[in-house]
Write a structure and sequence with these properties.
The chain is an all-alpha fold. It is built from 11 helices and no strands. Helix 1 crosses helix 11 and helix 3 packs antiparallel against helix 8.
Length: 292
């Protein structure tokens, strides 16, 4: 036994060394990525800090940098994300519940699963072309918030469905069997036991999908979202612009002042994103506390 231990000791030592080196490599790459991100954020904040004030938030876009603001783009972004969440979350979660809890295993369900997984990797510009053809032209919605939110819904649905299905799949099957054993129906089991346990994972998918939607520019440019408006949307059928388009417009101009405005708009966009994620994380944390 001692001879076997002596022969195996070098192998164990080598594997532990490889494990430590791999952990060190992963940690170093993570620190490098975080360092680059911090440098970029500091650069953006320094460049846009002098433009951040109440007038910047409460003014419309202008050809004069001193009078330009993001009021229309900010309201358009909030409208777009609210409508997208209102459409995509119920539809995505309901689709995941049906596919995971009700749909029988068949070739059709396998075909749907494969297509949902493939749609999650489709470039966003393709969804913009689809939205332009279907919602803007065929349905006659024009360059409206509703057309933009429908396009964003198509963009984020595969991510929400996939993440929600994984969250539902992670719920122990014994929980379902115990509920059925007590006489509960499938819907009662899903509603009172499976869904509450899966909410933290579902919210993770929602956070990722809406975070992607809030920063997308290409689909909205394909839809024809305007870059210069002097009003805030008051209904889903109004024309709109969003912060990524406004940032793109300012960054493409040669004047240095507009670059500073673009940096300030980036800070505001990141703040909106962090606030939205903080609310979702808080809801997820409370859901985890309530889950036994």
């Amino acid at each position: 036994m001692s001879g076997w231990q002596q022969q195996s000791t070098p192998g164990f030592a080598r594997r532990h060394l490889v494990s430590r080196l791999f952990r060190l490599l992963c940690g170093s790459l993570t620190l490098i990525g975080v360092a680059f991100l911090i440098i970029l954020l500091i650069n953006v904040v320094i460049q846009g800090y002098e433009w951040l004030d109440f007038d910047f938030l409460n003014s419309f876009s202008s050809r004069r940098p001193q009078r330009a603001g993001i009021k229309a783009a900010l309201f358009g972004t909030l409208w777009l994300i609210a409508l997208t969440a209102l459409l995509s979350i119920p539809l995505g979660v309901s689709s995941a519940i049906y596919l995971e809890e009700y749909s029988p295993k068949s070739r059709l369900s396998n075909f749907i699963e494969v297509n949902i997984a493939n749609l999650a990797g489709v470039p966003s510009i393709v969804y913009g072309m689809l939205g332009l053809t279907v919602f803007v032209r065929s349905f006659g919605l024009g360059r409206s918030l509703f057309a933009g939110s429908l396009t964003m819904t198509l963009l984020v649905l595969p991510v929400i469905i996939t993440a929600s299905r994984e969250a539902l799949r992670a719920v122990p099957n014994s929980l379902r069997l115990a509920s059925f054993g007590l006489g509960a129906t499938r819907w009662q089991t899903v509603r009172h036991h499976v869904l509450p346990a899966a909410i933290p994972g579902i919210l993770t998918g929602v956070i990722l999908s809406l975070s992607r939607a809030i920063g997308e520019t290409a689909p909205l440019l394909m839809l024809g979202a305007v870059t210069f408006i002097t009003f805030t949307p008051s209904s889903p059928i109004d024309e709109f612009t969003v912060l990524p388009i406004q940032i793109f417009n300012w960054a493409s101009r040669p004047q240095a002042d507009f670059h500073g405005l673009g940096a300030a708009a980036i800070v505001v966009l990141l703040s909106v994103l962090l606030l939205m994620n903080a609310i979702a994380v808080t809801i997820r944390w409370r859901s985890q506390r309530k889950t036994p």
